[in-house]
Amino acid sequence: MPQKIQVLLHAANLPPDRLASVEHVLTLVIRVEKNARPQQTDALEAAATAVLAILADERSTGEGEWAAAMTAWQDRRIRKVVRRARGAEWRRAEALPGVTVIQGTAEVRVFPPVPLDDVPKDLAKLQVAGTDFDQPEPPAVPHPGVPVIWINPTLQMSSGKTMAQVGHGAQLAWLALSEAARKDWSAANFPLAVRKANPAHWTQLLQTDFPVIQDAGFTEIEPGSRTVIAEHPQLRR
């Protein structure tokens, strides 16, 4: 087994007491080639879908090889880091165990969580900066019945920061769903949309019971800021 894969799987091989006692991080890597940058909405939707894909992956549940690490990660702060890669960097990242999602112009690979000190070097050395993307045309109105992750219109966040936040939103929606609803969403390949709410709509969403993300405020925004709200049809009351 190549050394880089041994490092990635190290978290799953830790003793249970060690595994549960350390903070884990889930890494998402977006492909950003020199002359082929993804569009903003595609990047956000790919990130949210990637998080759902790894949550539903058979390796993340039961006796799966990632299950212990996924449990340890979700028992603490669901920390996510978004990095970018191109060329050989992307090929090295793609060789590590994970799940790749393609959404329009965006390609995102998500990796099982590992302790903060055990992030594989081929991921740890990737840049966090440089993940600001454009949206040449306004995104279409979401189809009725499609889950929507709404972004707080009052906050200024980089694309990378927003990708992590919509990933959080997708995850909380997943956890709030019934087992049957999760299976249906997974079977349909996780249809969803990510959109910025207008101020009036955001105020209305805050009055609902949909999952809402409050950020710890370690980067870019104030602690406790409400960043996204996940509106899933199966969570309407």
TrEMBL record:
Record EC number: 3.1.1.29
Alphabetical UniProt keywords: Hydrolase
Pfam family, one: PTH2
UniProt catalytic activity: an N-acyl-L-alpha-aminoacyl-tRNA + H2O = an N-acyl-L-amino acid + a tRNA + H(+)
First-level EC class: hydrolase
InterPro entries: Pep_tRNA_hydro_II_dom_sf, PTH2
Gene Ontology terms for molecular function: peptidyl-tRNA hydrolase activity
Designated name of the protein: peptidyl-tRNA hydrolase
Organism the protein comes from: Kribbella antibiotica
Lineage: Bacteria, Bacillati, Actinomycetota, Actinomycetes, Propionibacteriales
